[in-house]
Fold this protein.
Amino acid sequence: MRLQQKKNSTILSAVIALTFLFFSSQSLAQSPGSFADLVEEYGPAVVNIYTTQTVETPLHQFPFSDNPDIPEFFKRFFDHPGMNDNRPPRKQKRTSLGSGIITSKNGYILTNHHVIRDAEEINVRFANHREFTAEVIGTDKKSDLALIKVEPAEELPYVTFGDSDKLRVGDWVVAIGNPFGLEQTVTAGIVSGKGRTLGSSSYENFIQTDASINPGNSGGPLLTPKGELVGINTAIYSRTGGNIGIGFAVPANIAKFVIEQLKENGEVIRGWLGVMIQPVDQEIANQFELKEPKGALVGEVLSDSPAGKAGIKAGDIIIEFNGHDIEEMRMLPNRVAQTPVGKTAEVVVIRDGKRKSLPVKIGKLEDEGMSREAETRTTKLGMSVQELTPELAESLNVEKSEGVIITDVDQSSTAYMAGLRRGDIILEVNRVEVKSLEDFSKAIEEGDKSVLLMIKRDSHTRFVVIRQN
């Protein structure tokens, strides 16, 4: 009996060992053994960029006041407000560091807008320590990208663009740059997420990576193990100023579009649809009877816009643009922006539960007190409203004199939690136009547990869903 148990235990141990070896070999087969060949081939296409600009400093300001090694009493003495107050400020040179990517053999270099912003002189140092002075071809603040150029005597090494749309979360990526001035530093990690936004632009669609990125990496490449450029390292999330494993890169597909525009026009010309949009969450999806929360909900169609001329209406949910699915709201601005001006794009919307296709000729994006005497009613939603009279509409500079205006919102109410505020104008309740307090009260009473409101704020309209208590 003991002999049989020992035999079974030996067999079980062997099975476990073989299983471990199998999965270990599978894991090793999927992960790159080394990035050395990649770095040797594409590292020379990554450059160090340092810029110089002149800043003015008042003479009474001690120039080393930020240096912790200087005794405090010296700082207080030199920083005395009475010193040299009547003399002109001192002009000093300030330098900044960043990285760049050579994208063509004749010297075009891609970097970040913030790396060269306000620079009087831009110097580029290659991996072999040769240096060139660069000229600015163009910059684009919206994408935080810039294109500069050097004039080499010979052809330069360069990287080629990959398809950033094909990146998957979990894919290996390599970052090369000059963090803290340390030239040709290589780090590796994976794609941690896609479609990230930081709130600084409508055109953000960052790739998130845990490859170590630090100050000085800005403008450097994010490469696949095959050496394809899939991102431009741009920002980090950090409480200390150093890497904590959360870095962001502009997708290569956006960068490729920006480069082509800067080369051709010296600026980026973006397409324009002319709608104000908002995300589609589960509450919105339920109200519009969608199977799943997807697309971009049109809150407002701007007057005399391509969307308006094509028949797009507030309340439409855009689910496709020119053959591309719009899974999330953030996908639409970049799709529209990269569409050539004057081109006709097919826009598919959900309207009243049905699909509708609308051809839209894309335009060019150009750089964009209450009366207490009227009757006021308090609703079970936790807000007070009053009728929007012609006089009140005129005082608020509102074109339409029909509807109700919110005069107060209880901060503990569902209305406040849904984002409604004093001064919002309610135009519709559950897709029914509201012209008076009676219309509003009736629509609220007849509503279900959740109410869909169309509101106007700061001359823009949007939809809000509120759950009734």
Summary: Residues 19-29, 59-66, 72-84, 369-374 have pLDDT under 50 and may be disordered. The longest helix spans residues 2-30. The CA atoms of residues 166 and 317 lie 26 Å apart.
